[in-house]
Structure prediction request, 228 residues.
Amino acid sequence: MEATTYPRIKICCIANWEEAQLAIQHGVDALGLVADMPSGPGVITDEKIRSLAGRIPPPVSSFLLTSRTESGQIAEHIRATGASTVQIVDSLTNGSYQHIRLACPGVNIVQVIHVQGEASIAEALAVAPLVDALLLDSGNAKLKVKKLGGTGRTHNWQISRKIREQVSVPIFLGGGLHPGNVREAIKQVGPFGLDVCSGVRTHNKLDEVKVKAFMKAIKSRSIFANLF
Prediction:
């Protein structure tokens, strides 16, 4: 009998080493460390990100969430924090992903696509060949004060599924996930990984009860009986 494959789990907005340990103890695959953002929760200093990234044990990945939009600045940010993966939450406006790869060898590149409609499919298809993974989220980079993550809102999962079916790189699904809806999200989208922040927090603090419930929901046999 083949082993069941579960989505990879990334808990974002990690604030300190205590939260990192709690997440790791419950079997997550990655931790999200949020640098300076125009809005949203979980922002910590680059110094703290570097400290946490240096303590996170393999094989758990450290994701630097950067709002920088130029490849040179992004590479500089990666080097300053020491993260193993960079999550680019806004569009790359200057430079190239190749520039980042050459400047930071061995660092995985994840591009966020803020799913707002069918146009997001074309955006994802254009970027996918250039990065290691896509993360589909519910932000809006077109607002005067950009929302680039941590919205606590879901988006149209049917569009996310279309993206997942048409690209060849892994897809992480984020945006408003919590223990009560994550099973349905997995059924509808079939993502490689899941990204959660507010859905496992109470008063902005990581909640062990919610983390346990989230992990339990993901590993429900009834989901995977319909997927594999």
Notes: The chain is about 35% helix and 20% strand. The beta strands are 8-11, 30-34, 61-66, 85-88, 108-114, 133-137, 171-173, 193-196, 201-202, 205-206.
